[in-house]
């Protein structure tokens, strides 16, 4: 059981998760954090709370209980329709000052990182960025926040010993969502919101959806990624899209393939692209540079096909084939098509 | 229009290794470079200056040899540079770093008021993306993070309009000046340095400010001013090494398909 702290820090209790939503849709990472937060709260023997801000979002509250929250702090106002640092930050900081949580988790999304950085500064407390591991040191009653840095070359465990709350942003797709418990309920705390548009310094005019095909690699179950080894644009498209189609997956790419102009940047996997966590990740003609590997480590199974037996990707893969993509991949497509029925089941 | 750009000297992270025995960071082999996002921040500031007139000042906190990144910014078209350098700054986390930088910015703006501050989206070593928001809060100005396009600058009304990158979308937002932006690389293409700028950079000596010059609260800097501490550094866990399938091409593929069928 966790020790009780003395002095000022003892006043801070409980684990909070910022529930990120856009247009009434909750970001998956927030539910993942309820799963991770539940475990931290149980270890500490404290409550897990969700903090939900927005315009007409009270319909989401029951879902948060079902995913593990004991309590939900809700702030609703028309001016909270779009996320704005200044409004969200003000309300969040006031809630923290009033209710004093010991741990605050937010998704390491553009919104979560923006809000967390502002809130931590106002509270003058520590914030660990982009974590991939969370645990509790029961003897010191501390959050152990582990994160990659230096482009994924190192991992570091960061502590915030003398300040509360302890804050962390957490990378999407790393923590596991808990299975929802239908009908589970908790306590709702509604907070008053006073905001006036005239006093605000920023205004969101609109949100514009990107044109063209939606690529959501973060959610994909199977990804077929291609690299420089595919030689040219035509082969890249033939082999990657061909295999993806045969196995029911999405296409991804290394930076070398993106820079060669074979595919758009939004398909890039890795440090400066997206981080993915599919069931199966194919790396076709990808060497396995560290900046690529940091983006794929969450995959359950990594399959590497590369002609160079020394390629670093073979150290990271689950199954490797040393061979030429131009012969292996067409054979694979062919065999998969024969087995098609089984695989898609 | 006076623009301040925050630039950080970083090790080229592709060259950073971890010593497997001592589990410490070996930066010795890594050359120091300007944080790649920050070159785009400088480029954007210079473009704004070219269109609207004004001045671009860069500021960096770092060891004495970080003058090199400031000189580099002069070649990119910056007018002036300040290096904040003092032993008291060492070991700063993002809270302390943003405090020190905001004090430096306050110092500069006492001489010449600042309209816009631009940071990179994140630094490639610390990778936190927290220093920009930290500076904005300390100065009490709006922050617009992940900006990938400046859609308009209205100097008469002191307003800026930008696109902020979101997942699969972007947001069009306006803010009152002064404000702080953090920028994505796709905001612009870097240009080649001009010869006059390169010559100027050779002779240029940035102004160096110490903790005493800033007349700021020393307990908010360095290790003392940092709520976070790194307790452990280790190499990322590697998979145990893959199972390399053996055989002729046809057999290889059949084995793989078997494995796939099992795991789906
Ligand atoms: C700051 C920074 C950020 C970066 N971010 C990213 C990132 O987000 N994502 C990313 O991917 N990279 C990133 N990189 C680039 C990274 O370092 C590598 O350069 C890149 O991943 C290499 O791509 P690749 O594996 O496709 O190409 P290469 O490294 O050139 O590898 C090609 C591979 O194909 C194999 N091959 C060749 N022909 C065949 C054939 N006929 N059959 C089978 N195999 C064949 C070769 O053996 C080789 O292993 C970043 C770099 C830096 C410095
Ligand atoms: C392994 C490791 C992990 C760390 N993890 C954390 C952590 O989780 N939380 C934490 O608070 N600190 C952490 N730190 C400390 C942090 O890296 C330093 O405070 C660092 O100086 C600033 O953070 P950053 O590199 O992440 O910058 P970012 O916030 O990513 O930088 C964003 C932008 O801010 C500007 N900027 C940043 N630093 C400077 C500078 N020195 N001079 C001028 N402009 C600058 C640049 O425009 C830059 O593009 C960590 C340090 C290490 C070694």
From TrEMBL, chain B:
InterPro entries: ETF_a/b_N, ETF_b, ETF_beta_N, Rossmann-like_a/b/a_fold. Pfam families: ETF. Residues 22-218 form the Electron transfer flavoprotein alpha/beta-subunit N-terminal domain. GO terms for molecular function: electron transfer activity. This is Electron transfer flavoprotein small subunit.
